[in-house]
């Protein structure tokens, strides 16, 4: 826990993490503490045990860019569970909050400059916290060595003990180091045995060619299907139009002529209607009507 001096009596002030107000236990003076000048202590607990860490390492060795025989040919010679000290700086940069992590101890381990501390995952590191079977590594770098390079304005800063698995493995007579994040399972590696570039490029080339062939066949089959479907549609439409617009068969010429001749003969053979049938007046009646005299009656 960081210590500050009371501005009135000079006694030591114990400042609890997460607060900006400290009260002197000797003179009772209440002091505001600028958190940008305080250094708080936290610990990020392990969420991955050693068995899971070994499984993560094995899956990592089977990656596509690793040496072909690395998964079955390597041997873990050392695995250490430890809390590694890092400084966490929260800064206000261009009106936005940014977090920077720097190692608090000199090291050649890979990834120690790129650790990511999840927000809200750490706990206050005091005498109530147990580190179990993990080893605690003490810092040997002053926080002041990083202050000058930090951008923006300070919000707060802390020393965080970060959980890691430090592993050493051997492959084909050579030794390599790797670090596994004990909270997220992320793997940090330095130089490692990788797949030969010529062999790797050959495999990638074959995969690329096969992908092109597969894409071409897929496109060809697709286009052919569309062409056949369109041809069938137009053919069906044409046949349907032919059936609908088909004309009836013409009448037989001989039958029509015979019917016409019979009608003509029937017209010629018909007699003219009589005067009685037509209702026309007789000659005598016509003359009487013209003279106006009554017809003479013979005795």
Structural notes for this entry:
The protein folds into 3 domains: 33 residues; 160 residues, no CATH class; 46 residues. It has 7 helices and 12 strands. The strands form 3 sheets. Strands 5, 6, 7, 8, 9, 10, 11 and 12 form an 8-stranded mixed sheet that branches. It has a two-stranded antiparallel sheet with strand order 1-2. A two-stranded antiparallel sheet has the order 3-4. With 299 residues, it is α+β, with helices and mostly antiparallel strands. The termini are far apart. It is elongated, with a radius of gyration of 55 Å.
Helix-strand pattern: EEEEEHHEEEEHEEEHHHH
* C-alpha termini separation: 174 Å
Count of distinct strands: 12
Strand content: 25-35%
List the helices and strands and how they pair.
Elements: E1 3-5, E2 12-14, E3 21-23, E4 30-32, E5 40-43, H1 50-61, H2 70-73, E6 75-93, E7 96-103, E8 123-124, E9 135-136, H3 144-147, E10 153-171, E11 174-181, E12 187-189, H4 197-244, H5 253-269, H6 275-278, H7 283-291
Parallel strand pairs: 5-10, 6-9
Antiparallel strand pairs: 1-2, 3-4, 5-8, 6-7, 6-10, 10-11, 11-12
């Amino acid at each position: 826990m960081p210590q500050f001096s009371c501005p009135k009596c000079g006694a030591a002030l114990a400042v609890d993490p997460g607060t900006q107000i400290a009260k002197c236990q000797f003179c009772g003076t209440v002091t505001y503490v600028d958190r940008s000048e305080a250094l708080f202590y936290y610990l990020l607990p392990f969420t991955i045990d050693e068995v899971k860490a070994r499984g993560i390492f094995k899956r990592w060795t089977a990656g596509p860019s690793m040496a072909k025989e690395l998964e079955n040919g390597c041997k873990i010679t050392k695995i250490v569970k430890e809390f590694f000290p890092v400084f966490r700086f929260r800064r206000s940069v261009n009106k936005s909050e940014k977090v920077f992590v720097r190692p608090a101890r000199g090291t050649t381990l890979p990834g120690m400059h790129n650790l990511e501390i999840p927000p809200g995952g750490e706990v206050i590191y005091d005498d109530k916290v147990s580190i179990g079977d993990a080893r605690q590594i003490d810092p040997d770098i002053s926080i002041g060595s990083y202050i000058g390079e930090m951008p923006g304005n300070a919000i707060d800063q802390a020393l965080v003990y970060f959980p890691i698995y430090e592993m050493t493995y051997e492959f084909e007579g050579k030794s390599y180091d790797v670090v596994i994040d004990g909270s997220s399972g992320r793997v940090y590696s330095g130089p490692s045995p990788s797949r030969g570039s010529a062999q790797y490029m050959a495999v990638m080339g074959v995969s690329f060619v096969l992908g092109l062939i597969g894409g071409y066949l897929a496109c060809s089959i697709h286009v052919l299907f569309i062409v056949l479907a369109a041809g069938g549609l137009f053919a069906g439409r044409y046949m349907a139009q032919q059936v609908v617009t088909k004309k009836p068969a013409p009448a037989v010429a001989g039958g029509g002529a015979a019917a016409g001749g019979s009608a003509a003969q029937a017209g010629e053979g018909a007699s003219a209607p009589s005067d009685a049938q037509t209702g026309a007046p007789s000659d005598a009646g016509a003359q009487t009507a013209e003279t106006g005299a009554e017809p003479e009656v013979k005795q």
